[in-house]
Structures are given as structure tokens and as C-alpha cells.
Amino acid sequence: MQEQQLRVGLIGAGRMGADHALRIHERISGARLAAVADPDLDRAQQVAGGFGARATADAFEVIDDSAVDALVIASPGSVHEPLLLAAIERGVPVLCEKPLTPDPKSSLRVVEAEEARGEHLVQVGFMRRFDAEYAELKRLLDAGELGAPLMLHCAHRNAATPPGFTSEMMIYDSVVHEFDTARWLLCSEIAAVSVRAPRTSSAAPDGLRDPQLVTLETTCGALVDVEIFVNCGFGYQVRCEAVGERGTALIGADGGPLVHRSGSWGGTISDDFRDRFGAAFDREFQRWADAAHQGRTDPTAATTWDGYAAAAACEAGVQAQTTGTTAEVDLAERPDFYTP
Ligand SMILES: NC(=O)C1=CN([C@@H]2O[C@H](COP(=O)(O)OP(=O)(O)OC[C@H]3O[C@@H](n4cnc5c(N)ncnc54)[C@H](O)[C@@H]3O)[C@@H](O)[C@H]2O)C=CC1
Ligand SMILES: O=C1[C@@H](O)[C@H](O)[C@@H](O)[C@H](O)[C@H]1O
Questions:
Q1: ipTM surpassing 0.90, yes or no?
Q2: Which atom belonging to ligand 1 lies closest to the Cα atom of 40?
Q3: Ligand 2 atom 8: the closest Cα is on which residue?
Q4: Cβ–ligand 2 contact at 217 (below 6 Å)
Q5: Which atom of ligand 2 approaches the CA of 230 most closely?
Q6: Read out DSSP for 244-304?
Q7: What are the boundaries of each domain within the chain?
Q8: What is the second-level CATH architecture of the domain 129-272+310-338?
Q9: Mean pLDDT of residues grouped by 10 in the chain (340 residues)?
Q10: Whose CA is nearest to atom 2 of ligand 2?
């Protein structure tokens, strides 16, 4: 089937959906956009129009379309569950933007549906796993080159938040990425989460406690601290320093060109995660399409189990945020189907 193009149905034609449509069309090979669904039909038509794809307001029409081989879900997390369940029932491969679903109960229903189907069909769009620097950090840790991991120090900074962004979203929309990368880098589950906050930045919108410091305890005994600062003002920045028994490694340390000109020196920083992680998204999509051609998911990608585990950690994170105490992560037993 490799010689034929994978016919992709896109669900959700907003900021990420439009970017992924372009990616499928221009930046990866072996796939093309076949259909686009968005309840905002104008938006669906706008995205589909440029690529010769058909547009509809009904996502289930795309899921049921026999002229669609694979799906990209880029609608808000709150609507992912029914879409995923329908896609699993049809047996079609899916790349679902994070989060798998917004809460662990619904994520577990997706895990159970996929396990019952007996095929790995869904991968979750935790794109950092495909970033070159994160991949090198993972290699160093897996090869034992830093010794046994003890701590991760992470910083996740956004320039500014869109209207309506809440403190809870700092956990389940933003820190969800660190929950996934910590589990992936350390090959360990998250056991407990606590959240503290310094005084609120004067740049934070009313009602938003920004920044916050989230601490994760893992089942392997490592500690992970995450500074989440979503109105830092200066740009988009994601850093991670791993501390092992025999060494440390830092990624996200602005290794780009150092420019000297007209009385100044320094680099530049974008405020858009699509710049920082553009190459990672491209790699994620190429590997997903290649795997889908072969009727499987990409082994580097986050599985539905990983999506569920991240949702469980988010639930503990929001609880810790609300109560001011450490919250344990309530995780179901992992089915053998998801043994890495
Ligand atoms: N991996 C990453 O770094 C990022 C991932 N995301 C994720 O991508 C997803 C989409 O986010 P954005 O594009 O920023 O949101 P957005 O609000 O720009 O776009 C969402 C689109 O989905 C449509 N939609 C709503 N319900 C739908 C349904 N039932 N069926 C089909 N379409 C529906 C909306 O009309 C809208 O056009 C979310 O899950 C979000 O968490 C967002 C930003 C970055
Ligand atoms: O997923 C993302 C956004 O939804 C989220 O709001 C940002 O904080 C993250 O940095 C970005 O990667």
C-alpha cells in the first residue's frame, strides 16, 4: 500500500488543524488530505479548499467515509471521546492531538475500547517525543550515560494566554506535556503531584495564578519540578535538565544562532510553539503516516495508555492545586496489551 497515498480525514480545522493540513500537504510524503470536518463549515471549507479535499460540518461523516484511510483529530479535547470511540469501532488509525480526553474516566473508556478491538489504532499527539533534543535526552538516559536519573528540572513558558485560560488549564492543557515527557524519559509512572505558587505576576490576567511550581514524584523515586509560567511575556520556551547519578543534560537552552549587530548581540525567540516544535510535528506526522501504511502505530508515539496516564496525573494536579496538598495519582492496572 506504500505506493498509494494515505487518505487522511481531518477533524477540527482550527489553529492546529489548519497547521496539520498544511503539514500533510506540504511537509510529509505518502499522505494527502481527503476530507475536513468542522462544525464551523466555513472554516472546514477554507482548510479543505486549498488541498482539494471535501468539507463537512459532521465529523462522524468523515469517520464513516470509506474513502478515508486514517484520521487526524484536532478538535478540542472535550469532544475527543465519541470521535475516538467511533474511529476505533471502524478500525481506522488515528493521530489524536493532546489530550486523549480531558479526564481519566473517559480516557480509560478509550483504552478499554481499543483493547477490546485488539488493535493499536490511536496515537496521542505528544509531539515532544519527536523533538531532536528530547530524543537525544531520552537516548542518554536509556543508555545510562548520565547514571540513574534523580531529578528533572523543567520550565514551560508561554508568552501570553488566550482569553478564558484558567489555572486548571495550566495543568491539563500545558503541564500535561511534562506529565507525558517525564513518564517517557524516566520510564516510570507518576505517583503523586503537588503544586505551589509564588506571588502572582503582575502580567497575569485577573483570576489566573501565574506562575506555578508543580512537583511530580515518580514510582522510580525521581522528582520532577515544572515551572509553568503562561504569561512570561518574552516568548515560548521549553527547557528540561535531567540530573543523573553521573551527569546532567540540559535541552531547550537556546542553541540557535548568536547574532551580533548594530550595538547588540543575542538570539531571537518566537512566541509560537509551532516554531519551537515545527520539526517535531513534521517527524511525528511522517512516522505516523508511514506506520499507518503498514497498519500499525509508531512505537515512539504516546499510546492511549499514555494518554490515560497523563489524564490521571492531570486530575491529581488539579486536585493538588485546589487543596494545596499533595495528591496521589489514581491509576488503573495497565493491561498487558499496553506493555511497552
Ligand atoms: N501539541 C500541541 O502543542 C498543541 C495541541 N493542541 C491541541 O489541539 C487541539 C485543537 O486545538 P486548537 O487548534 O488550538 O483549537 P481551536 O479552537 O483553534 O480549533 C478547534 C477546532 O475544532 C472545531 N471543533 C469543535 N468541535 C468539533 C467537533 N465535534 N468536530 C470537529 N471539529 C470540532 C472548532 O470549531 C475549531 O475550529 C486541542 O486538543 C488542543 O489541546 C493545541 C495547541 C498546541
Ligand atoms: O499544547 C499546547 C497548548 O495547548 C498549551 O496551552 C501550551 O501551554 C503548550 O505549550 C502547547 O504545546
A1: yes
A2: 35
A3: 174
A4: no
A5: 8
A6: ESS-EEEE-S--S--EEETTEEE----S-HHHHTHHHHHHHHHHHHHHHHTTS--TTSB-H
A7: 6-127+279-300, 129-272+310-338
A8: 2-Layer Sandwich (3.30)
A9: 83 98 97 98 96 97 98 98 98 98 98 98 98 98 98 98 96 98 98 98 96 98 98 97 97 86 90 95 98 94 98 98 97 94
A10: 174
